Amino acid sequence: MTDVKKVVLAYSGGLDTSIILKWLKETYDCEVVTFTADLGQGEELEPARRKAEMMGIKEIYVEDLREEFVRDFVFPMFRMNAVYEGVYLLGTSIARPLISKRLVEIAHSTGADAIAHGATGKGNDQVRFELSAYALDPDIKVIAPWREWEFKSRTDLIDFAEKHQIVVPKDKRGEAPFSVDANILHSSSEGKVLEDPNEEAPEYVFQRTVSPEDAPDKATIVEIGFSKGDPISIDGKAMSPATLLAALNDLGRDNGIGRLDLVENRFVGMKNRGVYETPGGTILLEAHRAMESLTLDRGAAHLKDELMPRYAELIYNGFWFSPEREMLQALADKSQENVEGTVRMKLYKGNATVVGRASDKSLYSEELVTFEDDHGAYDQKDAAGFIRLNALRLRTLAARTRRG
Q1: Residue 334 has pLDDT above 80, yes or no
Q2: Is the pTM for the entire model greater than 0.90?
Q3: Which CATH number fits domain 179-296+338-358: 3.90.1260.10, 3.30.565.10, 3.40.50.2000, 3.40.190.10?
Q4: Is 38 assigned a catalytic role?
Q5: Active-site residue 16, yes or no?
């Protein structure tokens, strides 16, 4: 891609992306635009702006995308109750399409002909960034330095940084004990001390939650309000999407909720051990399923559960902007039209337990399920014919087996 003149770089301000910034200038002799997204990772982002300025960057974008991220990406995913391989709430996966979307939009507005990211050639993120970018602009050029440059070790990176007067913090000179990615939905840790899946993760790995053993001895009760499948309030107080998720994160953190130690199957073919913390999301998933249990028809609920693994896999593999994900999203959104009401949760030492749910759209009927006199609401004799019809093929099969 020798004809690249201008590149938009996903820039964190950290050592790796600062090295990438300089490498892009040297390798492609191009102008670089930096884009730094606040997705609720909990870090001050103005230092990234100042560092980009120090490195001679003229066009610098630092954007607060927390509300858009939760409203347009996290909440739609939760309408489907999406979890990958049964347990992972897709915290890293769901952030990548939004970052890619802004990279492409900034490229268009600044006249850039390429975008660049700092994902390695072994992980899923390179796939997610690039599939999303190509879905939005089929002609966009993508530069992935980790797949191109000749650096073989951390020492090579440090040497390059020092050669080009890029500040190397003292804590970056040695090997990091593990790698971290974070946003308002979760934090993920992997590599180094976590590479042996048979070794328990050290307590210092966990950054978003207190240990369940150290959580309060008294339970916390919280009530979450829903409208059309999305959470809208906590204890009766209306909140914006990002504010609500942040509040649930605080409650989950204090009660040791949302830890996950997982060996997952990466899209690129290898297995990987990750330690995840999703405190607010874990509470939200349990509450949303409880709200659906009261308001969603059995057929609709079971169909959603059948399709959910496919939907989750699409997000994990980077196909957020694919037509099949959008089709499944339409189904999920349609199912949520009457998913409204309140769910009461008990938070205690790592557990988020449903203890109550109520809705004006409830399909639950005490008159039908009561063990007392139902005043003719349900004729139990009808069940005999229902059972005989459903048993017909089973009895036919059993008769053939007996003859054999």
Answers
A1: yes
A2: yes
A3: 3.90.1260.10
A4: no
A5: yes
